[in-house]
Specification:
The protein has 2 domains: about 200 residues, Rossmann fold (3-Layer(aba) Sandwich), CATH 3.40.50.720; about 140 residues, N-(1-d-carboxylethyl)-l-norvaline Dehydrogenase, domain 2 (Orthogonal Bundle). The chain has 17 helices and 10 strands. A 10-stranded mixed β-sheet has the order 1-2-10-9-8-7-6-3-4-5, sandwiched between helices. Helix 2 packs parallel to helix 8. About 30% of the residues are buried.
């Protein structure tokens, strides 16, 4: 295990230097990894494991879009694609990658196949952390582990095909076999993690729910919308408002941040931009920090979990979700974005 100091805090990491792909293959040589669910994380993790030389099968309901997608991706019925119950029976490691609502619904079935010595793998701490609401309580004689890639399954797969790694967190909730650390490390390397940093199921879900509602998705959309609306209200064209709000950030500035950090991005902008950014970032922090504090408190208390479970369990959830997504898609800002993307040189 490697250690690295982040600021003044030393953290435990698993990297490919000390835990190579070959070591990961050897660790899981006698294991069958059953990936349940072929929606968001399932395809990327399953395909990466398969391409990396692990014994992988997919469990999915027949006559579903996800089953058809698995077939299109090369999984073969009766060879490495099975109904969920059969996959659970065959798997020694069960990767539980359905949606949070799907995990709740399927749990009575899955738990029947968690015989002693197996491993139950999650990519989200939701089900176990909020067990009072999900009723997902794994038996004591199985390993319960987590690898959470810091991005979508689509990104995980794309970066794998580019010979890049997507960082991931790992956690051990229960080590029944004494092999949980080796299993989770091997799986993390196998699914394509750049490196693995240690967390707990609780910390993973608290940080994940805060991030999704905050700077990764919710807050950034809110900031985009506010700035776009102010520019439009002051007579700027949709194209100008979108380029100054979204396009310049995503296409020019964020790649610089990813490369060497925010300070380096600032240093590579004009002195006028630097001065304004340095003067204004703290007022934005001070204005939004109370919102983040409220958000974290609601995540910690289980409020966000309750809202999610209630919404996702309704029969008309998908219809209402699509309506909300259409509202975003059809807003002036993202309609302008669709035009701007078509005008990028690589699309002409």
């Amino acid at each position: 295990m490697a250690t690295m100091k982040f600021a003044e805090v030393e953290e435990s990491l698993v990297t490919r230097d000390e835990f190579s792909l070959e070591k990961a293959r050897q660790t899981l040589a006698n294991e069958t990894i059953a990936v349940l669910g072929y929606g968001v994380q399932g395809p990327g993790q399953a395909l990466n494991l398969k391409d990396n030389g692990f014994r992988v099968i997919v469990g999915q309901r027949k006559n579903s879009k996800s089953w058809d997608k698995a077939v299109d991706d090369g999984w073969k019925e009766g060879v490495d694609l099975f109904e969920i119950e059969k996959a659970c029976e065959k798997g020694t490691i069960i990767q539980y990658l359905l949606s949070d609502a799907g995990q709740i619904a399927l749990w009575p079935t899955v738990k029947q196949y968690l015989t002693p010595g197996k491993a139950l793998y999650f990519s989200h701490g939701f089900a176990v952390t909020y067990k009072e609401q999900t009723n997902i309580i794994p038996p004591k004689d199985v390993d319960v582990i987590l690898v959470a890639p810091k991005g979508s399954g689509t990104s995980l797969r794309r970066m794998f095909l580019q010979d890049r790694g997507l960082n991931a967190s790992y956690a051990i909730h229960q080590d029944a076999t004494g092999k949980a650390k080796e299993r989770v490390s091997a799986l993390g390397i196998g699914v394509g993690a750049g490196y693995l940093f240690e967390t707990t199921f609780k910390k993973e879900v608290y940080s994940d729910l805060t991030g999704e509602r905050g700077s990764l998705m919710g807050a950034i959309q809110g900031l985009f919308a506010a700035q776009f609306e102010v520019l439009r209200e002051n007579g700027h064209s949709p194209s100008e408002a979108f380029n100054e709000t979204v396009e310049e950030l995503t296409q020019s500035l964020m790649p610089l941040v990813a490369e060497n950090g925010m300070d380096w991005m600032y240093a590579n902008c004009s002195t006028t931009a630097q001065r304004g950014a340095l003067d204004w970032w703290k007022p934005f922090r001070d204005a939004t920090k109370p919102v983040f504090e409220d958000l974290y408190s609601k995540v910690e208390k289980g409020h966000e979990a309750a809202v999610t479970i209630e919404a996702n369990s309704k029969e008309d959830y998908r219809v209402k979700l699509n309506a909300e997504l259409d509202e975003l898609k059809n807003s002036e800002m993202w309609r302008a974005g669709a035009v701007v993307r078509k005008l990028r040189p690589e699309n002409n």
